[in-house]
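Hi everyone,

Forwarding the result from last night's run.
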Amino acid sequence: MAIRDTPKWRMRQRLAAARRAVPAAVREAEAAALAAALITAPLPPGLPGTVCGYWPVGSEPGSPELLDGLARRGCRVLLPVVDVPLDWAEYTGRDSLRAGPLGLLEPAGPRLGSRAIACAALVLVPALAVDRNGIRLGRGGGHYDRTLPLATPGTPLVAIVRDEELVPSLPVEAHDVPVTAVLTPGRGLLALGTS
């Protein structure tokens, strides 16, 4: 649970409000641009193979089309099942999803365990913002900060955000796991450096 009235909490509130204010038509255009950028990008080593993704909630960037496009490229797509750390199950299409906690849709198939992320050649990570050093600001539940360390070292960890949510710097805490790249609608896929 996020601690209220801290700089990070206030930043989360501001970013979430800005997302909710984006008109639906703009969100749809950005979702299409994100899907096109990822689906046409050169595949990293190990792909097609397993990709850990997520089903976007509310105004969160991303789309079912992005997931379906990865599947059409031959990727096995896993989506999170809420647990700590996150569990994973295979995405086999929109009809295979069921309602889960926190407003998420989760695959109804067999759970593969939290260590399934270690099989991924690519991990797509939701974020409210990410900075140029790969520091990611999530929703504050800690699910991804507890899960990303289970990925195989060197696996691309790609945060998906709106263009305005790629910022110069964010506050960092010891438990924060940096991402290695960012995907935005206007800039496409960009590698991030660490300082």
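The chain has a mean pLDDT of 91.

Cheers,
N.
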